[in-house]
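[09:14] KT: can someone run the structure on this one? pasting the chain below
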Amino acid sequence: MDTMQVLVIVIAVLGAASLVMAVVFLVNLRAQQRTVQQAARRAVEEERSRSPLALPELRPGRTKEPREPRPERPAKQRHPKKPVAPADDSEPDVSLQERDRLLRDRETGLASQEAELASARVDLQRQQLLVDERAAALAAAEAAHQERLETLAGITADQARTELLARVERDSRLQAAQLARELETEAKRTGEARARQIIVGAIQRLAAEQTTESVVASVPLPSDEMKGRIIGREGRNIRAFEQVTGVNVMIDDTPESVLLSCFDPVRREIARLTLTELVEDGRIHPARIEEVYERSQRNIEELCLRAAEDAVLEMGITDLDPGLLQYIGALKYRTSYGQNVLAHLIECGHIAALMAAELGMDVAVCRRAAFLHDIGKALTHEVEGSHAAVGADLARRHGEHPDIVHAIAAHHNEIEPRTAEAVLTQAADAISGSRPGARRESLEIYVKRLQRLEEIARAHAGVDKVFAMQAGREVRVMVAPDRVSDAESHAIAREIAREVQGELTYPGSIKVTVVRESRAVALAR
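[09:31] RB: done, structure tokens below
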């Protein structure tokens, strides 16, 4: 602590001490004055109470002479007057004299009390003058002392006070910022640990099947002779089958089996049931193919409706619009990267419910939003737009709550999520799609996607190095600091993300990180 700070502290302490002494002295003087006045009042009251006569209060210096009583006039009587004895005047004279003496004694006592009060008043005035003189002297001494301290310190008291307050404010801000940083770090650390615990607990508690679907279905045959009957004369049966069902029939050297290929899993399943029934019946011709196809189509519709009812029952949803059941059931035969969409919805519903229960949120709303988030995939090939927008519009038209509609529309960040239910739906979708074995992707497609990621990032000016990391879920781009500024690095990150989103097809999301690092190296010898 330097000399300036010591002087400032001494000035502040002396000023406070002087002010306290003056206040204490004035308080004691006022207390003495009140004590003297109260004693005088008590003396007057005691004198009044000791007086044997209840006389009115008389002012000193003025006395009243007692009046002589008037002689009583005898009442008129009708009877003859009797002789009246002469009155004795000695007793009234004695009482009047006694009263006169008491009055004089009272006046004398009051005069003496008044003189004492006057003397006490004079003493109080004298003490008041002394107190005022001492207070003035103390103020002058304090001012001189403060002026001396200011001269020695080289600054005024206001300047010292301002500097002290600024120093205290700066220290307080520094401590507050440090405390806020510590609290923020602690919150992030505990929050990340809590989030990991919730997600891992939800995944561990969920038992889901691995993906097994593909775009090809196999139909067993009783013998290879059945292949000829399926083809028919000059191929009319196979042409009629493909025309009615919209499915490609592949007949190769594989013994006792025929392959059906179609991108639409619903049509592929209808064709599989149709061909299976035709093989069992043995009668295969164009008219029979149309008849069996219509019956298989009705069976598939019933199976889809039953699957939708079972899924809704498993989710515990009782107030779903019946018009949505056909779309939910259609997802039974649809896949996304090899993952069954209906199974994916059920899995997302369970994951969202588990995490909502851990977070203290509305379990029913979160489960419902996660279960319906991909319902638009049932109409993607029929209606223009992304499956998130199509699903949100479909849910809105069937009377779903606005929070559910918003969660469906925002689960791929096509719009900004505004509710906790929408964020939880995104998390459940990501967990279900990224867990091991959930989705299948060929090695060739995976390698090509990683190479294309690096090519897109490397095509921008100023990019030095590009690394595709975490199985293609993150791209780290190193830029040259002398060619790219901080603002341009943000623009490059946004441009790469936009190009990746518009060109590539991938599950989940890809994080683009642009790193701009400049180093200055000096050697001291």
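[09:33] KT: thanks! The longest helix spans residues 90-153.
[09:34] RB: yep, looked fine to me
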